[in-house]
Design a protein that fits this description.
Shape: globular
Largest sheet: 7 strands, parallel
Number of strands: 9
Order of helices and strands: EHEEHEHHEHEEHEHEH
């Protein structure tokens, strides 16, 4: 399988690349970013770092140039892990946040779907607090959460509009994400997550492995919530594959 990854230098994207380079079922990993992407330092001796192809994209809202399209051609799936986090958004103008979260994503999906293999599976990394219902009144981060919800809706609408054309999509919506070197998830944050229903914490490796599994074996549902990601990730991972 040929896998495209965006957000490759971030927390989730870098773990997706690490696990993809370890997975013999993945023959090529295309990391699209604003700057060159290197294989993670902790990738492990079992990995094939030669599978990683770093592709620099300068304009994320324009049609992809041929220098990028040639790497997109023949791709089987994409894990889109590029976004602005709530904490990052506080220091940015909101139109810029929207452009990165919405416009980059939809332009990417459109370009990829036009040139990739079929079926083409597109997995969008979001979060449990993101709200698809645009009429809902929210008590915190309303503008941000609704905007990210519009992105989710747009991705699902794109798949419906291209029904029968081999485009499959889903959204991963984890709650708390634990990983080595990260601060422990606080009790207040855990309590907040519980207001969204049963939302187990997912290990970063489980999240990445679950999304890779859906790319390889087919999308099973939408959305993929915390308990889905834990179950799929634990099934897909060997003990030694966890990031430690």
């Amino acid at each position: 399988m040929k896998l495209i990854v965006t957000g490759a230098t971030g927390l989730v994207g870098s773990e997706v690349i690490r696990l993809a380079l370890r997975n013999p079922a993945i023959t090529s990993v295309v990391a699209i970013a604003r700057k060159p992407v290197l294989a993670p330092a902790n990738v492990g001796s079992e990995s094939q770092t030669s599978k990683l192809q770093s592709v620099v994209l300068e304009s994320w809202t324009s049609p992809y140039p041929e220098s990028v399209i040639r790497y997109v051609k023949g791709a089987d799936a994409c894990i889109w892990a590029l976004a602005v986090t709530p904490s990052q958004s506080k220091d940015m103008d909101f139109p810029d946040v929207t452009a990165i979260c919405h416009d980059y994503t939809m332009n990417g999906l459109t370009n990829m779907a036009a040139h990739a293999s079929k079926p083409f599976r597109f997995i969008y990394t979001s979060g449990v607090t993101v709200e698809r219902d645009q009429e809902k009144e929210l008590s915190f981060l309303s503008e941000y959460r609704l905007m990210r919800g519009r992105v989710e809706n747009a991705i699902l609408d794109f798949a419906k509009q291209h029904e029968g054309q081999g485009v499959e999509v889903t959204v991963a919506k984890p709650g708390g994400i634990e990983s080595p070197g990260r601060d422990a998830i606080s009790a207040p944050f855990t309590a907040m997550l519980e207001t969204f229903g049963h939302t187990p914490t997912v290990h970063l490796s489980e999240l990445a492995a679950a999304m890779i599994d859906q790319c390889l074996h087919g999308i099973t549902k939408d959305p993929l919530c915390g308990e889905d990601l834990v179950e799929i990730g634990q099934r897909a991972l060997s003990p030694e594959a966890y990031l430690r």
